[in-house]
Amino acid sequence: MTAQDPVDQMKHQLAQATDQTTQIKILIELSKYLVKANPNQSYHYARRLEQLATRPQHKPGLAYAWTIQGILDTRRGNYETARIKFLKALQLFKNLGEVASVAQLYTNLGCVYDYQGDYPKALACHYWALRIQQKHGFGKGLFMTLNNIGLIHEVQNEPDLAYGFYLQAIRVRDSLHLEADISSKLCNLGNIHLYKDQLQEAIRYYQQALEEAQQWNNLYNQSMALNNLGSAYERMGQNEQALALFLQAKSLKETIDDQEGLSYVLMGLAKYT
Known about the structure:
Layout: H1 4-16, H2 20-37, H3 39-54, H4 59-75, H5 79-96, H6 99-115, H7 119-136, H8 139-155, H9 159-176, H10 183-195, H11 199-215, H12 219-235, H13 239-255, H14 259-269
Helix pairs in contact: 1-2, 2-3, 2-4, 3-4, 4-5, 4-6, 5-6, 6-7, 6-8, 7-8, 8-9, 9-10, 10-11, 10-12, 11-12, 12-13, 13-14
């Protein structure tokens, strides 16, 4: 079965559904499924979900609509819009008693504050998420939160501390046998080696990240791994290889409308124009 098969199936079910509750349920699953594989379509269906869930108000539908839109707004660099949507979704999920979703919203808010450079607020949100995940045994969320805390330490030039959190994240996945894409974590480990000028190790992790992202059909992380590989090869003086990788990353960034990521790729390409 190809990745498109479940999408076509959900679209068919949506076209056949006649009641609001069924339509909302399908739109939630469809927009969630497409977040990584086709972000533009995901946003389209999340907007439809928001409209459908507004009158009469369907709190879970609205909460998921705002969460998904917020994730995609974050990727597009619309941080303040994303923050507002996450806060609205957080309040609804708290009212609904959806503890796992509350933890996820704290994680999402932490990422927004991170991108805005407000590291104290970012860490506060991630540690709220961490406490909830540890208390309730949310292994997959814990895996993500450990990685996000590592990211903040990396940005603050604390590479050894960051490396420890990244390794903890991967160990959580392995110990719990989670079905989880670790391509971003492998990229992060590569980043630490790149920072330390350990270029062969960086390339090894970036290549593993690319292969992992391809397995999961994760275009966002594929583009990230390609761009990072380009940076590593450029540092080694292999500019032809670097340029080819940057161009592949650019194509994927444009496909998924990742404006934030595209700006970094274009910075790398500027040297070759």
